[in-house]
Amino acid sequence: MDPKGQKVKFNDGHFIPVLGFGTYAPPEVAKREALEFTPFAIEVGFRHIDCAHVYQNEEQIGQAIRSKIADGTVKREDIFCTSKLWCTSFRPELVRPALEKSLKNLQLDYVDLYIMHYPLALKPGEDILPTDENGKLVFDSVDFCHTWEALEKCKDAGLTKSIGVSNFNHKQLEKILNKPGLKYKPVCNQVECHPYLNQRKLLDFCKSHDIVLVAYSALGSQRVKGWVNLNHPILLEDPVLSAIAQKHKKTPALVALRYQIQRGVVVLAKGNNKEWIKENIQVFHFELTPEDMKTIDGLNRNMRYNEILFPDFQCRSKPGSSC
């Protein structure tokens, strides 16, 4: 981490803020929430904005960022912006056009980080989840190492400063790391990670290869039907987390976020409530003890909230699970 303790250095020399603002929301509110909450997040101090083509709100996030640049709150170089390559654009010739589309929507000349969203290719086209006449997902036979080569070219072209992956397991990471002619290593691997799924083995592997782990669903998950198992317990109601939070006079959410930062994990915090967004930035105002960290480590259940409840997708994506 840098001296301020609020950034981590990538293996390519760039830095990423350890706390990011997550922008996913259910489709029916994604655009409205992006316009309402992204400017507020920047106002209270967030400088790392995590976006994706599949969230379908990059245009609104771009408007929010431009508004905060226009009013003098930030300069472009103050903002760390991530976008993600969706699975329908994994063919090498589709990678740069997909990034250029995100840049146009975001009204940016470059993103700070561009990552492959899943280690799985889907049939190209306008449909986010292309299906056949039986309603089953249609996959595409693309070697993601070829997709990676196209990402490397985007970095060389200055369209993105850094490139990484998301939802990769260690074997899939090794496939890229061992690829003949590799020019750039992935700088990060963004995965579901929280006290019920602490990803210890994957974190150790990533650290050994100088790859930063980025945690999404760090507070459990938004309980979105069809993507998340609604039967799982609510993380922030865990009595152990609540007891540690009470000891520090903080909320369980802040404890869960602080836990990741002290492990060297970059953590994303979604906010669809201004009070929560304002609260999350306070993660730098306290520290967990070694005993707290050990206790939270003991909560691990290897339990995923984000199961992506499409049977054929789940079946195909299990090799890409990040545990």
Automatic annotation (TrEMBL):
InterPro entries: AKR, AKR1C, Aldo/ket_reductase_CS, NAD(P)_OxRdtase_dom_sf, NADP_OxRdtase_dom. It comes from the Eukaryota. GO terms for molecular function: oxidoreductase activity. Residues 19-300 form the NADP-dependent oxidoreductase domain. The active site is at Y55 (proton donor). Signal peptide: none annotated. Substrate binds at H117. The keyword Oxidoreductase applies. Keywords: NADP, Oxidoreductase. Pfam families: Aldo_ket_red. The record marks K84 as: Lowers pKa of active site Tyr. Belongs to the aldo/keto reductase family. This is NADP-dependent oxidoreductase domain-containing protein.
